[in-house]
Amino acid sequence: MPFTCIRCGKCCTETEMLLLEEDIARLESLGHNRSEFSLIRRDGLVQLKNVNGHCYFFDPATRRCKVYEWRPLGCRFYPIIYSITEDKCVPDKDCPMSHTVSPEEIKRACPHLRKLVKQLIAEAHIRKLLFSGDYYEHDKKDYKVCKKTRRGHNRHSGR
Ligand code: SF4
């Protein structure tokens, strides 16, 4: 049986989901401005903004994503994440339904996740070359898609 999401909204709470330029362009095509829904971190990565403790696009009334069809690539693979320290794809234990992710689903998603992480890092390097430190609104050392966990691992996350 494939992964079953119970729409608890946990992954949309205090999100650190990283965004590709193509994610930003897709969301801007809906009429949003990047400054509304994203911020650039000091490490050059761009992540979704939180409003009242949840993702800018999360609707607490319905507990649904307001841009589900246009959501970032990282959100599409969640709860499968890429662990930089382990150099492998794993189900994110923060998701209460992570135990329903099958090995086949991980195998299918992993090449895409690896590519996504590479692209995120490449785009971050370009931003760091283009902008001065004053531009950044957020200061974190770890990657959003590769967030530091309570267990001390760096990993890629998103729904
Ligand atoms: S992906 Fe997991 S954490 Fe996110 S809403 Fe579904 S069950 Fe909850």
Distance between the termini: 18 Å
Order of secondary-structure elements:
HHEEEEEEHEEHEE
Q: Which strand-content bin applies to the residues? A: 15-25%
Query: Could you give the order of strands across the largest sheet?
Result: 1-2
Mean pLDDT: 85
Q: What count of helical segments does DSSP give?
A: 4
Distinct small molecules:
iron/sulfur cluster
Question: How are the secondary structure elements laid out?
Answer:
Elements: H1 21-28, H2 34-37, E1 38-40, E2 46-48, E3 50-51, E4 54-55, E5 58-59, E6 64-65, H3 73-77, E7 80-83, E8 88-91, H4 103-130, E9 147-148, E10 154-155
Antiparallel strand pairs: 1-2, 3-4, 5-6, 7-8, 9-10
The structure holds iron/sulfur cluster.
The site of iron/sulfur cluster has 13 residues, from loops.
Description:
This protein is α+β, with helices and mostly antiparallel strands. It has one domain. It is built from four helices and ten strands; from the N terminus they run ααββββββαββαββ. The strands form five sheets. A two-stranded antiparallel ribbon has the order 1-2. It is globular. It binds iron/sulfur cluster (SF4). Iron/sulfur cluster (SF4) binds next to loops.
